[in-house]
Amino acid sequence: MTEMYNTKNAGVRRLMQEAKELRNPTEMYHAQPIEDNLFEWHFTIRGTLGTDFEGGIYHGRIIFPADYPMKPPNLILLTPNGRFELNKKICLSISGYHPETWLPSWSIRTALLALIGFLPTPPAGALGSLDYPAKERKRLAKTSVDWKCKECGCVMKDVLLPITEDGQLKETEEAKHLAAQLKFQDESVVKKEVAEAENQEKPTENKSENDSSSPTVSETSQASEKLTETSPPETTPLAVVVEETVSVDDPIVVIEPVQEPSPVGASYQQHRRLASQSFDYSLLLTVPLGLICVAIFITLLARRILVENGNPLNEPEL
């Protein structure tokens, strides 16, 4: 199997190392990859003493993501047990349902011990959980030892080491400790958390939309000044003022009169407007024509004087 995978990959090296560590079965658990796929394992766990699962041996699958151990695996039980649904991914804080709670330092052994610790806990409506009566769970525990996996061919009673009281008590306490640290995710709680997150996002989106559509104070003042300068003095200038309402509805646009400008600015604007209205643009043509006529008249008059008084040819000969 080593030749089939890139041993430089961190996930491949991690899985090969864990397969080596878990090669020998214990009294409580055993796990190994299937022959042709390093990223799919089969595992076997034993029920704990003093519970409805005492004496039971349960088999299942572990599906690893390509970027393991950065993301958690998925756990699936195949043996009837009365606690988890068969052939369905288990919603556990250490499983693929909740990658946000997974730690890369956790291992396959950690996941198996956590699963053993969660077997006798109440289902609390979690995904993939069952709540069979204690009598039915005990019956399934007795029949589980003869169960045989159709995929790997393992018979449950032949997988794990013979049970000893000291060994089982030690690993049972460790499993309970892990189960106390990790929480079994309740489907109703998950849905409630998702709904609350969506409700919190909606007011934030509405607020951002209102903020982006509402003009700022500086923009409103600039618009008012612009309208004041361009509007004639005889009309009252208007500006658009946006008032925010108490509800999250769209803002209401209200037309309000702008305050009268200062007397100095108003008189200056009125003077400029009156000057521009009283100017006679025909003077631009009349004045040049008048100046040309005066020049022509002066030229003709000077010529006449020169001709009559200053020409020697008009004097009589002696």
Automatic annotation (TrEMBL):
Residues 192-238 are annotated as: Disordered. SMART domains: UBCc. The chain crosses the membrane at residues 281-302. Residues 192-210 have a biased composition (Basic and acidic residues). Residues 229-238 have a biased composition (Low complexity). Residues 211-223 have a biased composition (Polar residues). This is CBN-UBC-6 protein. It comes from Caenorhabditis brenneri (Nematode worm).
